[in-house]
Amino acid sequence: MSDELQPVPESEPIRDPGLPEHQYRPQDVDESQARRTERQISLMFLTAAALFVAFVVAYLAIDADQTFLGWSAQNFAFGMSLGVGMLLIGVGIIQWAKKLMGDHEMIEMRHPSASSEEDRVAVMKDINAGIEESGFGRRPMIRRSLFAAMGMLGLPAIVLLRDLGPTPHSQRVTVWKKGMRLVNDVTGTPIKPSDMQVGQLVNGQPAIVYETDADGEPVLHGTELLQVKSKASIIVVRMRPEDITASKGRENWGVDGILCYSKICTHVGCPISLWEQQTHHLLCPCHQSTFDQGDNGKVIFGPADRALPQLPLGVDEEGYLIAMSDFPEIVAPSYPELARDQKKLDNKS
User: Fold this and answer.
1) pLDDT value at residue 142
2) Range of the domain at 136
3) Could you give the CA distance from residue 273 to residue 277 in angstroms, rounded to a whole number?
């Protein structure tokens, strides 16, 4: 299409729209300037692609607890690499449109809403002409570098999926194992049966949460500690033994009326500990799912469709409560495949 204003037929309502004289850009009259601009735009796109790769490197190489100038070093690297990369793509596309794509004035009169076949053909012709004038086909350097940048933009999105949290499948196993002591979640002290009274509920954790190495440093810390606590948190309750109806195979899972259950609600994973001593019911505050601790953690009300996982208990030689194994059931919110996975787990045990 010519850069000159097209003549308006006598039948059109406006003969002269009053547009100023067309001003040519440097890239329109100097091919070397156009090539220089093309290289600059391509450099922006390639730099953006490199920054998206840097995002992934930062995710894998920088510890989540590391700081930089008082900020999270990982978040700082994420923001700089992803933000600057997307900014460069945006600036590059704007420069491409302003300096290299077709630059001419067009006049379009208002038409009836229903277009004729000739008009539709003309529109498609204009669209194809616009694609041609954009230089997308004639400037392979820009095209390839843009594809590279947009392709690399998917990498941060992929690695960030990991931070949505552990999948239900990864929550099948906790750190609980035979011989590990139960400790009070507040004080970190091991629990003896004599420490608990009938009707009492104690929030607990596995002893490893509070263990330290030879230098006095915590064995678990940071993100790893939070992940362990989120899956292994427990509630310990004491009832009169005659109030407990243990299912087959669970007759010896308690100690003198003391039972232990997961603190993770089987509905959507909320932490629960609202305890009603007289009825032995445990209520989840999120959606009011109610579990009977005297009847194997069975659901008696609410949207949860699985009983609370129960941890088998024993006593070590010093008289402290210990786990006799990991949870035989899957500790996780419910999801469609859970019934199938639990059945496989039951068959193995």
Assistant:
1) 84
2) 26-106+116-164
3) 12
Task: Say whether pLDDT at 98 is over 70.
Answer: yes
Give me the amino acid identity at 31: E
Instruction: Judge if 187 and 335 occupy the same domain.
Output: yes
Task: Give percent above pLDDT 70 in the chain.
Answer: 84
For residues 104 and 310, what is the distance between their CA atoms, to the nearest angstrom?
75
- Does 20 fall in a domain? no
- Enter the pTM of the model: 0.53
Q: Of 265, 264, 245, 263, give the one whose Cα is nearest residue 254.
A: 245
142 and 48 in a common domain: yes
* Same-domain pairing of 137 and 252: no
Q: Check whether 11 has a pLDDT greater than 70.
A: no
Residues near 35 by Cβ (< 8 Å), separated by ≥ 6? none
Mean pLDDT of the chain: 83
**Residues 6 or more apart in contact with residue 293 via CB below 8 angstroms:** 237, 239, 259, 261, 280, 281, 282, 308
The residue from 146, 164, 182 where one domain ends is 164
Q: Of 29-33, 134-138, 150-154, 184-188, give the lowest mean pLDDT range.
A: 134-138
